[in-house]
């Protein structure tokens, strides 16, 4: 029988610990594994325990203090070893703070040797209820809070936490909501924001002690392909669920590309604010490539995605925030598009550089 793996992710160590404990008590014949990267010392700490106490507590020097090294050198080998042991049916894994579950899920989905002994039952993202809005939409970086997974980890807390919510099979909010929300009697904006960002079928549990690990282990396992499809920046369906009270969303779409010069000059108008934004776009200087757009809390990542192939090219961004929606976003989006007459048949953008080389590399083909 394959051991069921429950992966706990998050950006707050206390919330992650509470979720892991709640799962450990309910999961059948469970063992808990916690990994923590000490960036300054270049060390990975591993603690393995079950309901009888600590089974092992080890520190391992890493060649590079980063998530990839930790996964390759210790996390996956530890899961394999515990599955081989045979004493436990469930493994509740608290990944390093800020480490996303995607890499573990990808390896276990593709490695037939590991897949014979391990299956991902669910990915559980844990957030501090009282800090949800700040963690998802604030401008802090992991380094600002001393939670980076490497010496050069300058990722925004919001970007990381939003991606975790979007990848999760379950989201748990630990601790009480903010005092303002608790006293107002109004709908819980924090929980509504999470439900807007998460897949529509993902439960949001507002008490770690109510996590039903036994049900997660018994149900069909985490479907990595479905999760990847939901997280795709180029999918056709909207990127978010319909928002609830206190939360806004905006979907902007056009068949036209962004103008490279205007976009470089005015990126902040679309990205620099307390909202989550993601999607895809294209540039007339790189017409064959679907380019990726993802950010939160004023931090923005732009990357080279995949070839458009036979699909119609499009610029498609979704925004999510709380409170009042910024009025300028639709008009700014329109102002950054290239006029249709400038990208019609037979028109070529013959330029050697477009200003996006730092993000996308050199232009390989000009339209």
Automatic annotation (TrEMBL):
Lineage, highest ranks first: Bacteria, Bacillati, Actinomycetota, Actinomycetes, Propionibacteriales
A UniProt-annotated Pfam family: CobW_C
Recorded superkingdom: Bacteria
Name of protein: G3E family GTPase
Domain CobW C-terminal: 247-337
């Amino acid at each position: 029988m394959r051991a069921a793996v429950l992966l706990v992710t998050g950006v707050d160590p206390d919330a992650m610990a509470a979720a892991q404990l709640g799962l450990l008590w309910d999961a059948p014949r469970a063992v808990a594994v916690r990994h923590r990267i000490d960036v300054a010392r270049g060390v990975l700490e591993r603690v393995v325990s079950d309901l009888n106490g600590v089974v092992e507590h080890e520190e391992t020097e890493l060649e590079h203090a980063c998530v990839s090294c930790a996964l390759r050198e210790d996390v996956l080998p530890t899961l394999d070893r515990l599955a081989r042991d045979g004493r436990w049916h469930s493994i509740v894994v608290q990944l390093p703070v800020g480490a996303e579950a995607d890499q573990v899920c990808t390896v276990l989905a593709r490695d037939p040797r590991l897949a014979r002994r391990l299956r991902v039952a669910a990915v559980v993202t844990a957030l501090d209820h009282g800090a949800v809005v700040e963690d998802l939409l604030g401008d802090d970086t992991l380094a600002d809070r001393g939670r980076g997974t490497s010496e050069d980890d300058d990722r925004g807390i919001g970007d990381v936490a939003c991606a975790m919510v979007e990848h999760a099979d379950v989201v748990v909010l630990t601790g009480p909501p903010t005092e303002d929300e608790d006293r107002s009697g109004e709908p819980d904006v924090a929980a509504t924001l999470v439900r807007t960002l998460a897949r529509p079928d993902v439960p949001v549990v507002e008490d770690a002690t109510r996590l039903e690990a036994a049900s997660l282990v018994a149900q069909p396992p985490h479907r990595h392909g479905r999760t990847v499809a939901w997280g795709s920046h180029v999918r056709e369906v909207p990127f978010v669920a319909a928002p609830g009270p206190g939360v806004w969303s905006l979907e902007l779409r056009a068949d036209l590309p962004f103008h490279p010069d205007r976009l470089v000059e005015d990126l902040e108008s679309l990205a620099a604010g307390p909202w989550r934004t993601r999607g895809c776009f294209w540039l007339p200087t790189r017409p064959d490539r679907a380019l990726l757009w993802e950010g939160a809390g004023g931090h923005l990542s732009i990357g080279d995605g995949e070839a458009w192939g036979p699909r119609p090219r499009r610029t498609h961004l979704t925004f999510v925030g709380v409170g009042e929606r910024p009025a300028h976003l639709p008009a700014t989006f329109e102002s950054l598009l290239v006029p249709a007459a400038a990208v019609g048949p037979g028109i070529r953008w013959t330029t050697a550089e477009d200003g996006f080389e730092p993000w996308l590399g050199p232009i390989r083909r000009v339209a």
